[in-house]
Amino acid sequence: MTSSISIVVPCHNAESFLRETLDSALHQTCPPREVIVVDDGSTDDSAAIAQSYGPPVRVVRQSNQGAARARHVGVDSARGDLIAFLDAGDVAPPIRLEVLSNAMVAHPRCVLAFGLGWNRSRPMPARSPITGDVLDGSMTVLDKPLEWLLARAWPMASKMNVMASRGVAHSCTRGRSFFRAANDYDFQIRAAQRGPFVHVAAVTGEFVIRENGITDRYGPHRQMAYALCSACEAFRDTAKTTEMRRIWLERIRSEAPSLAGRLALQHDWRLLAYVLRIASQGGRPFDVLRGFWWALDQVAEENPNVAAPWLRLTTQAGRGLRVLLRSARRPIARR
């Protein structure tokens, strides 16, 4: 199995840390068949650094279209039966390919294997946050990953610390260029519609949050908005159980109004329109409108120097409407 693993590395302007990533990919206890670096329109020497390694490292170039598109291009050109992903700037411990491929072989009904990602700026965890297991390499099959992901705005496996068959990887990355952020969440929730996951209680990825990375460029609220869009699509395309519907409605009502307010401040109108459509699915239109106005109010208070005139006017209108509604509900005193 180890000779049939391809590693896909999306890369954009990563010349200062790409070597550490590629060195870790090549120094595995089970070496990969190939490492495909997809240069996503870099303006630095990233592509040249990758090319200097020679086989088994290959370089594929594209214009800047985002990590989601880069991953699909990499999978599309891969020769391996199994696909592992590794973002430029992250590090794969030597056991990564061995333990994830063993998990795929041991549990052939699972569509995806993943381990634990460790943020190097924090202490190394002693247990898996997914299962609570000590990090002894034990495997746990998760039969309902879709319900887990529908209830949350973050992926089950951080930083695409996953492995899947080439067929699953290809179908889950095709046509996903819209997701400029939260594309790891989008990949995993699409995979979760196809079957169970297997989790390995071991650190199989190391990373740091880098300046001008996706997290830094898009911010947490925009990432959460993209994740909500992905979850909405998954919910729409899946047979709904009563429990799944309850989980989904709770998430819409808790996230959508405040996210819409943040997106309005950032002038991300396309994403804002998508989130407002999702909010309308949660019912209770008055609650959605009230939450949206509350979020705008909070944004205006937190950013008084950058709040646009339209934002100040909107929040003032919201406050006035709330006063009128409270007055309308107040009982009239009898004379």
Describe the structure.
The protein has 335 residues and is of the alpha/beta class. The chain folds into two domains: 2-207, Spore Coat Polysaccharide Biosynthesis Protein SpsA, Chain A (Alpha-Beta Complex), CATH 3.90.550.10; 214-329, no CATH class. 47% of the residues lie in helices and 15% in strands. It has helices at residues 18-26, 46-51, 67-76, 96-106, 145-150, 166-173, 183-192, 214-236, 242-265, 269-281, 285-302, 309-329; strands at residues 5-11, 34-40, 57-62, 82-85, 112-119, 139-142, 162-165, 197-207. An eight-stranded mixed β-sheet has the order 3-2-1-4-7-5-8-6, with helices on both faces. Strand 2 (34-40), helix 2 and strand 3 (57-62) form a beta-alpha-beta unit. The longest helix has 24 residues, at 242-265. The protein is globular and about 65 Å long. 42% of the residues are buried.
Q: What would CATH call the architecture of the largest domain?
A: Alpha-Beta Complex
What's the tally of helices?
A: 12
Q: Report low-confidence residues grouped into runs of 5 or more.
A: none
Principal-axes geometry comes out as: globular
Fourth-tier CATH superfamily name of the largest domain: Spore Coat Polysaccharide Biosynthesis Protein SpsA, Chain A
Largest sheet: 8 strands, mixed
- SSE string, helix = H, strand = E? EHEHEHEHEEHEHHEHHHHH
Strand content: 15-25%
